[in-house]
Amino acid sequence: MTATCRRALPLLGALLAGCAPAVAPAPAAPVDVAQSIVIIDADGTDADPSAPWGGGKTWTRTLTGLAVDGHRILVGGWGLHGQQHVRAQRQGTTAKSPARAILVDADCGLALLTVDDPLFWTGLPPAAIYGGVARQGPARLLHATPDGARVDASEAAVVGLPISGRCNLLHLKLGQVDARHVVPSDVVGSGTQALGVVASSTGDEVLAFTSRTLVAFLAEARRPAYRGFPTLGIHWQSVTSPALRDELGLAPGEGGVRVVHVFPLGSGAGALVAGDVILTIAGKKIDGDGSYDDPDAGRAPFGSMLPDSHHPGDVVDVGVLRDGVRKAVGVTLRAWPGSADLVPWFNPDDPAGAYDIEGGLVFQNLTGDYLTRVFGSSWGTVAPRQLLERYWLDRLEPTPEEARVVVLTRVLADPATLGYERVRDLVVESINGVKPRSLADVRGAFAHPAGAFDVVTFAPGQRVHRIVLDAREAAAATERLRSAYEPPKVGGP
Amino acid sequence: MKPLHVAPLRLPLLAAVQVVFGLLAHASPAREAAVKSAPARDPAADVPAAVLRVEVSVARRDWSAPWKLRAPESAAGTSFAIAGDRLLTNAHVVRDAQQITVKKNDGSAPAIATVEAADEDCDLAVLRLPDKTFLAGVHPLDLGDLPASGSSVTIYGYPLGGRELSTTTGVVSRIESQTYAEGGTIHLAGQTDSAINPGNSGGPAVQGGLVVGVVFQVLRAGQNIGFFIPTPVVRHFLDDLSDGKYTGFPDVPVEVMPLESPAARRERGLPADRSGVVVQEIPNGSSFQGVLAPDDVLLSVDGERISDDGTFASGKTRLPFLHLFDMKSIGQAVRLEVWREGKVALAEWKASRYGPWDRVRRSRAAPRYLVYGGLLFLPLSVDLLVAANPPGDRRAAISRAVHAQMWAPSQDVDREIVVLARVLRDPVNDGVQEGAPVVVERVNGQPFHDLADLARLLDLSQRKRDVFQLAAPYPDLVAIDHDRAAATRAAFLAAHGIPHDRNL
Question: How does pLDDT run across A359-368, given as a tens digit for each residue?
Fold first, then answer.
């Protein structure tokens, strides 16, 4: 009878019912990981940085969600960025249950949803996730489709383990797959276990988060405060050239990579210096080509070591060769959220696109989102030089004086701006003598004109250095143009 | 005149303005021309006979192996006879030419031509014919004046679609400054709606038998937007050649902005009867340093009053004031009138070239290079940047190096920017990472002045290893064993088919 009790009820229920188990409960029978997949239906809005005062372009997309322990649904990629309404749907059903995000790591591209309706979870098995890293071999790609609320499966193969993304995570590179039919958040599975979740699918390359990363993310997400993934925060160069190894004083077989630059907000700041040769991290030898021996993945890029096995706040010993002396330095690990970038990819302060209209001048923080949406797919060559340089060369270099790159993005036609209509996309140096640390400082700077005029200056080398507005006219224009361009505020008194 | 509104490395604009360089496939054999000769005294009737087809065997340079030429290609364009038994065409028509033949429109055999002079900056070239008799009976075309907007113009040339002389007629749409795609610089240009196609390049735009321009490029993004080099620019080029010492067009390294803002006028206290453009920026080493200053209002150039939109009156038309500078000769003094600190001030500017632009612009000279330890070093140029097409971060790093020289304080504007262009594999550079072109900052801890200086420092090096520091933001080190590089140099050069390790 005890066996019957176990089959009929969960363990706790069985105990309460007086059915004392005669033996330890067997784990739940493994099920095909495809059974843990749910269909995620999301609506959202992409900001329109070229007209930030209005709404953006709305979208609806379907994502593959993976039900995991704790009534959570794992979603990969950046498909939920800008989401406003999310619904979850079980396979073979028509009902869509409201879902809500409980954690979004916009830097690494992982998110967790939950559904508050307990009925949604009845009979939905949480996925078993492989604890290691799948190496080369066959796999299945599982893709949720709204058509019939079903899961489509296709064959794929893990063909490599590159490092990718700003979190420096090891990824599964998938081959033997048509990348056009793979979308972020599709699940990589093998029988009863999930091996990964697709992070990106571009051109002919499909990259997926490893199962080890997923396990780490799910564990971290259970903490009261999510800490993210740590990175070392450096630029480095390989030291495979014998001549350079000799120049740096490295012994044969010693390994080591050379630190080229230490970012001011990164973990390495204050501990590592440019010119150091990193020999070991946490006791593990780093080879000259930047690889190390990963216990799960074999030879792997050393940059993936920290995010996949450590947490922000951990202190790791880094063995360096500095000025001819071998020594160990303690590095306190930090995560580096995109919001800390000088030029973040999107505007973390306001996904709808923050802006300010002052005297007919439109100011925005420079973001990657601005570059791609305003200048299109060829933004890397057609966007103004001054913006591209700040994005490519400075985006990880905020300073106390410059937390964001403030840009005069366009000039709205108005009597106050007569003569400046063609001015646009200039990096601002000062407004009325004040250097704006970010967009938030712009309004305050216009509150204190330089005498009868508002004076805006721009960084050198942009062809325009200084423009002047009549302060009184500018103030009137501000009100006039805000009311003309900005949608009226809704809501009662 | 050099970029006032367009930076010399602003590649997108270069790409947007498509050069009509007439890469015509020689799909059909030449046919006998069937153009009757015209009465000699009618200048308009002289035109067809004076317009010659240009066929060029082009062997372009390969930036990744600058000591060799690529496989030859055939190209074609147009030229026309001018005084002195010469032909005028575009510089881009004959660029990288290994052989040039010209063919009259009378069925006669083609003749060999050589380049007497060319300037990529204004996209003009003069051809000379070793056969002095070839142009006998051909009446050279005379240059006319700047045509009026709205006037009719006829384009002669040999565009694709056939081999006979083609004529198309349109109107002069407007005359204003344009970026010349060949050199990436700005000069006056005429726009026409007349059909212009590949092969038209170098052909004359004619009014009443007089040449009013030389066809050179089209704007592919629009419809019927073709451009010709107007006669003032052509005359400047030809006049400059006349003394046998060509110096080119002056650079104008100053940024200005139209004074169309009433607030800006009020702030400067500019009287209502004054007008001009506001000086915005003057780069390091500019010939305008000490002549103009930011916030000056440039009122006039050699007495020609500048209006608030940046134009000046030239007869019945208005032209961009930059044209006034452009028409000066190198070394010529120019009187400027400026509004500075509430009053009129006079200044004098001497026309000159600007080093940071001069060094990177397109050139017909054999590419300069240095090969050391399998590392290929090249001076930075527009050509290199176009050909190498580096990824975004590398492109940004190079453009910052160029602009830092112009705008960062205390920069040596005479320094040539040198890039490590590629790594030619050899045991001596084993382990050196192959990367996109990247600026070289120092060698053995020392800055260097130019490619020749880099070579000199390497030749004189007594170090066991020569260490190159690449420029920020990726200041990698590259090391080469000095003795080993010297010992294997001859074998390395032979293995890679490199005739000399340097052309400085």
Answer: 999 999 999 9
